[in-house]
Design goal:
Elements lengths: L1 E5 L5 E10 L1 H15 L4 E13 L1 H4 L3 H9 L1 E7 L3 H10 L6 E5 L4 H10 L1
Parallel strand pairs: 2-3, 3-4, 4-5
Antiparallel strand pairs: 1-2
Length: 118
Amino acid sequence: MLSYTKKPDTNIAEIVVDGKIADAEMDAVMTAMKADLDKGKLKLLEDIRAFDGMEPAAFFKDPRFGLSMMKGVSHVALVTDAPWLKALAETFNFVSPAQIKVFDRARLEEARTWLAGA
C-alpha cells in the first residue's frame, strides 16, 4: 500500500508505505505529488511502516520524477524502524538537495513537529 496526502493550507505532504507498492498506487502518488510540486516546494514526511517490495511496473516508473521531486522538496522526515532504510537515508543525505532527518516509528509526531518548524 502506498498513499499520498498533502495537509491543506501547508506545504507539508505525507507518503505512507505499508506492504507492497502496486503500479496503480505509484501512478496516483506521482500524479498528486507532481500537481503539488507545480505549486511550490514541499516538506515531505515518509512513513515507512513496512516495505515488501513493489510491482515491476511501479519500479520502472519515470526516473526523471525522482530527480524533479528531490529538487522540489526542501525537507524530508523519514519515519522507519528498518535499519537498512535508515542507513540509506543517512548516506543519501550527503548528496540530496533536501535536508533529511530520520526518526524511529515511535517518534512520528516528533517528525511532524520537526517538518512544521523547518
